[in-house]
Amino acid sequence: MNFWLLLLISVFAVCSSEPALKAVVVVFRHGDRTPVRPYPTDPYKNRSYWPEDWGMLTNTGKRQHYELGQYFRQRYADFLPEEYSERDIFVRSTDVDRTLMSAEADLAGLYPPIKTDIWDNNLLWQPIPIHTTPENMDAVLAEKKPCKKHGYLLKQLLKNDYFRNISHTYHDLYAYLTRNSGDTISDLTHLEYLYNTFYIETLYNYTLPEWAQKVYPTKMKYLASLSFAINTYTSDLARLKTGPFFNELINYFKNRSATEDNAIYYAPKFLMFSSHDTIVANLLNSMGAFEYHNPPYTATVLFELYKSSGRSYVKVFYKNTTDARLVSVHNCESECDLEKFIEILKPITLTLEEWESECNSLLFDTWHLYLLLISLLFFVSSCGFYIFVLVRNCKSENNMYTQLPDEECA
Amino acid sequence: MILHKLLLSIYLLSLVQGKEILKQIHIVFRHGERSPTSTYPNDPHKNYTWPGVGYLTNRGKLQMYTLGQNLRTIYSEFVPKYYWPLDVNFTSSYSDRCLMSGQLVASGLFPPKDVEIWNPSLLWQPIPMHYLPRNIDNLIVMRTSCAKYDQEFIDVHSSAKVEQYNKEYSNLYKYLTEHTGMEINNIEAVESLYNTLDIQQLNNLTLPDWVNSSLLAEMKIIGAQNLAIYSETEYMKKMKGGFFLTTVLSLMKRSLNGSLVPSINLYSAHDLTLVHIMRALNLVDILKPDFGATLIIELYENASLKIFYLTDWNGTPQEQVLKECNNPCTIEKFSEAFKAVLPTNWTEECQYT
To answer: What are the boundaries of the signal sequence (chain B) (predicted)?
Structure first.
């Protein structure tokens, strides 16, 4: 009797084994900030219009991230212990004040100290380390480490028909913005900077100058959101921008997937990355999941790794403003097998070493290869021609006079 | 009270005379109390639960927060009421305990006031900590690879001085080896063991019978001797503490030139950082800095420097007069007096010529 009951229970347990969350990686944009740089004719370019210095996180931004931290606490209540341990979470930020501060505010919401974490009864906050790497050395999170090949490919992309056509179509708009703003607005990126400044000024209830009102937001909106897609527009561009990140993500998921729950040594179960709108957009676009828009403050991409009856799968969410929405990674729907996830992302995944060598290789693409081949061919043929001429001359000269033994052509 | 007022008026008078107007400060502090980073086979407390390995303890957190508050009191005139990111810079080492200590000092130094309060029920505000990767951090960690230094460091280990230490402490090594159940045969191992015992004692863990206060005192001195051999020669001083001083001098010069550089610079560091700097300044021979020990270098409008040392997180600033540079010690005088320990091109000076 007992045996059957046990069997029944265990069969039941196996069949209905709840999928277990094994790892979470979140990448978010910082909170509300002041404009990074006002434009020359900006009526609000005086610092006194703003609560903080240029590009700094504001109190609103701090609150937004504090709330996002509380959201994580709620969402992962059964997953992430309430007491802080460096064995559970690893936090990394780009080396910029507003992202470092956003991460701190976020953690204040995620880990209000309880029990033994309380070190001062009068201040219910606890310090949590945030790791960072100087931007020009950071190819994983800031995506700012220089990559020659990416720069080259991007330039090529913007020369193609589609983008040339856009430049043509919007030529007047660019000229209009340049004339009125006092800044040279001649590409998508600079247009987006300006769009962003307008956005923030409207958010702070400042009336835009009349010339700006004529084009903001409607006429600029599409271009501004397109600017978020260009850095990862093709598979090659995506690989060189987000490849090292996805490599890290995949290795981490593999590692966590293989880790037993009772293992003594294990990677933290939660990775938090504090970053920028461009990074959020780049990650989504690389996964074929970017709907053109400007990622708002605290926009978050959530990667969740589950394990159920020995099967590991990934769910990716995008939390735009309200709740997290499931996104499909290159059409790998909802519960994407880890193996398949890895396979799908393979073309855009590469190690830092591979990234380094690809970024610095001189043979950027087939076009360069052709050029090299043609020049090689030209070189060989001209050499051949020269030798041919030389030999013929020698031969013809041979007929004219008796050659001395140590003379050329011998 | 009268004396206090007198002192205050003298201070104010000096301000009026324009002699003693503070321009820029550099504050280097050791992190707060941490958990042990090692144990030994016979350790009766080896299964004690600490918060992480080499992590800040709650007491360590409070120490750092208090240090921040103390600095606010010391510099009440100089440190502005509000945190201004462009005027304040925190640099930390890569290590968690320093990153956390930095955040805590920042919280004590800049509790949010008025418009800074973003959450009325939490009087704290985020302040960013910057740092360089460990392998290139010459400023705080000071363990960047440097061929010539690394060779000199190896040479020091076979020097007469270290041989003398080993001879002198051979009985102690034997004693410690016997009781700990682990081989202890150099001053570094003694230092490491001392750190563990010291922290355990601070946390009211009863130390085994073979440990007593005079033994701990002797071990502490040996620990300090161990920290000093990292900057045994003049060249070694130059490549470690000297690099820090060069960086500080350059920030000071820029400040005097009117460049926008932070006037409040804080460095969340390790014991070795302080030893390196203090030894480069020729202020100490050996030193084993306590938790929260702090070195302050002040720059005044008249281009003179003053140096202070706080022995721990709750210490009072003791002025450290440089034998080589005083009355007043101007940047110019300082650069000349410490020329031998100020690198001009660190990378080049690491190579053999």
So the answer is: 1-18
Distance CA A295, CA B20 (A): 51
What is the CA angle A102-A108-A112, rounded to 5? 170
On whether any CB of chain A is under 8 Å from the CB of B130, the answer is yes
Instruction: Compute the 3-state secondary structure of chain B and give helix, strand, coil in percent, each to the nearest 5.
Output: 45, 10, 40
The pLDDT tens digits of the residues spanning A330-372 come to: 989 789 999 999 999 999 999 999 999 999 987 656 666 676 6
How far apart are the C-alpha atoms of A264 and B344, rounded to whole Å? 48
Going by their DSSP bridges, the two strands A131-133 and A89-94 should be labelled as: parallel
Contact between residue B327 and residue B302 where contact means Cβ atoms under 8 Å apart: no
Residue scoring higher pLDDT (B265 or A381) = B265
Q: Given phi > 0 = left and psi -120 to 50 = alpha, else beta, which region is B27?
A: beta
Q: Does the predicted model carry a pTM greater than 0.95?
A: no
Catalytic residue among A32, A106, A183, A277: A277
Neighbours of B9 (CB within 10 A): 10
For residue B275, tell me if it sits in a domain: yes
Classify domain A19-35+57-143+240-355 at the CATH topology level. Rossmann fold (3.40.50)
Considering only CB atoms, B86 lies closest to which of A53, A66, A86, namely: A53
- The pLDDT of B168-193, averaged and rounded, is 97
Candidate from B59, B62, B126 with C-beta closest to A105: B126
List A30, A150, A190, A276, catalytic entry: A30
Total of domains in chain B: 1
What is the secondary structure of A67-128 as a DSSP string?
HHHHHHHHHTTTTS-SS--TTTEEEEEESSHHHHHHHHHHHHHH----GGG-S-TT------
Provide the shortest C-alpha distance from residue A67 to chain B (in Å): 11
Tell me the domain boundaries of chain A: 19-35+57-143+240-355
Name which of B97, B119, B128 is nearest A30 in CA terms: B128
Cβ pair B86:A128 closer than 8 A: no
Neighbours of A17 (CB within 10 A): 12
Bridge partners of B318, per DSSP, are: B309
Which residue do the tokens 């735009």 mark? A320
Query: What length is written for chain A?
Result: 410
pLDDT in tens, A261-298: 777 778 999 999 999 999 999 999 999 999 999 999 99
Domain of residue B253, residue span: 2-147+248-322
Nearest CA in chain A to B123: A123
Structural domain contains residue B216 = no
What ipTM was reported for this prediction? 0.92
Instruction: State which residue of chain A sits closest to B133, comparing Cα positions.
Output: A133
